[in-house]
Amino acid sequence: MNTSSPLLAAPAPPPVPSRRRWRDALLIGGLAALVLAGLAGLAAATGWEEVMHQLRDLGPMQIGALLALSLVNYLGRGLRWHLFARRLGLTTGLRQNLRHFLGGFAMSVTPARVGELIRMRWLRRETGWPVERTAPLALVDRAADLAAMALILALALAFAASGITFALPVAMVALLAAWVATRPKLIVALVTFAYRTSGRLPRSMARARGAARSLARFSTLPVATGAMVLSLVGWAAEGYALHLLLVWMGADIGLAKAVAIFTFSTLAGGLTGAPGGLGGAEASMIALLTLEGVPLEVSVPATAIIRVTTLWFAIAIGLIVFPMAERASLKVAA
């Protein structure tokens, strides 16, 4: 039974047309097929025997270690989501917030990850809070990722003996985007300017200003520090996973370079706007590993494995948790 105030309740969103669902499914499937085809083509060019040899050399314990490092990332960021939700004023518990956060991974392969806003729908059903009140959660969560990855990339480049210094501007852009996304006064000013310029959508503009002002709650030192620590640990764990994988495959390029390549490739993939960064992240990782002297017969399978144990592992978890989150939210809303 939903005991929230009816004043805060919002009507359920209209169902997604089946035609759009089919279009999205075809888009994701097409992109995934192109990535797999590209990796298969590179593997064929370098010789299938070498590629399969590298894959066979990894045992179950090593694959388990890579997945465990990814879990560190997911759970750390899930705890950060819980921290943000409580700071916003939501009364949702830890288990509930983790269910929302992990379930949203099922939508990670939507363009620009907009599908992850399904978490706002679940919150609306379970708490009665409209989307404009919970939207700051999604914004600050994305900003925290950008800030942490920018800092990790900058530090990794500083400690790397040589190499991809051209990635530093990407780190600066990501850090700037994270800073802008968490400046309530700046966002309010931009929204106000947009409204005065266009004179359109007054109610939507007012809601956007209200959502922007809510960002101030996340800028306190304890919240910002806790969120940054969780973010740094999580993303550094996945960067370390690439380092371990390269060591096991006999292509140790150093921890700093491996972390820098993983972080840069993840950011580059996100900048393309493609679902899950598909294509852009893989191409960047293979190219940068090649620049560091890693042969294609190692860089191609290494890229494929690290993407399976990070992106696709997250999607698999999301697909498992998603129906649980959907059922739980419908049960509360009933």
UniProtKB/TrEMBL annotation:
Keyword Membrane carried by entry: yes
Pfam families tied to this protein: LPG_synthase_TM
Main location class: membrane
GO CC field: plasma membrane
Keywords: Cell membrane, Membrane, Transmembrane, Transmembrane helix
Membrane topology reported for the UniProt record: Multi-pass membrane protein
Keyword field contains Cytoplasm: no
Compartments in which it is found: Cell membrane
TM ranges: 25-46, 58-76, 146-168, 174-195, 215-237, 304-325
Family matches, as PANTHER family: UPF0104 MEMBRANE PROTEIN MJ1595
Protein name in the entry: UPF0104 family protein
Organism: Histidinibacterium lentulum
